[in-house]
Amino acid sequence: MIKTLKLPKFLIPFENDNLIRIGESSDGSYLVDKESVIDSDFLISIGVGTIFNFEKSFLKLNKVPLLAFDGSAGLLSQLKKIKWRLRQIVRLRNKEYFLDSFQYFLAPFRFYLFYKNFREKKLNKNYRKFIKKYVGNKNEYISFSEIFEKYKLTDNYNKIFFQIDIEGGEYDILIELIKYQNSISGLVIEFHNIDQHIEEISEFIKKFKLNLIHNHINNIGGVNEENIPRVIELTFSNSLVYNKVKKLPHPLDRPNSDDFFNYEIINR
User: What percent of the chain has pLDDT over 90?
Assistant: First the structure.
């Protein structure tokens, strides 16, 4: 079933002929401007979980230093999930569940192998570091300012690509994205419960100098009573733009899950 959804005009992206897919074909991948990726000199991922397909694909195109942040990820967190999964296998005694569990068992080891190249002294091309911390303005979180100061980003890098998926925490850091926007070459960011934050998103897009070049509807998030999607993934770049797209989704788009609705958005 295809749902016809509505979007405020400011959430309709501009046309971009240079879009490519980064990551796998389902949840955790994004459409981005290829030149923004190639032109970047640093990648920062905020909210990685254990799915690092985006980061892996990005580094294949442009091997830049990578910092990743997530307070809920890491080896210990995954081992706890494996323990719970093993209990479920014993309790359910279901063959399909057992076979499906292998991805959970392999996840922490794949995660470790991907981030095994730690470099504490120098941010060289092979540098990858995972920091088990949330990013935000709470006392126990690490702030944008701390990240930029600790790693001397503004002194050494001025084309940083950001990937942000922090389950609602994105609204707390929008002002800092604007503050450091001169150092940002590209951004993909997921917005949750957008019907409750329309004004905040609108103000951010007005003040953010990068252009909105793609809007992907996360079909897992559902829609509200007015047929407005609740969760969207926006892509921004420095590319020149002229006209708004006439229709969404983009031909390269893929649903976050095949178990939920397909959609179309027509810009008239």
Answer: 49
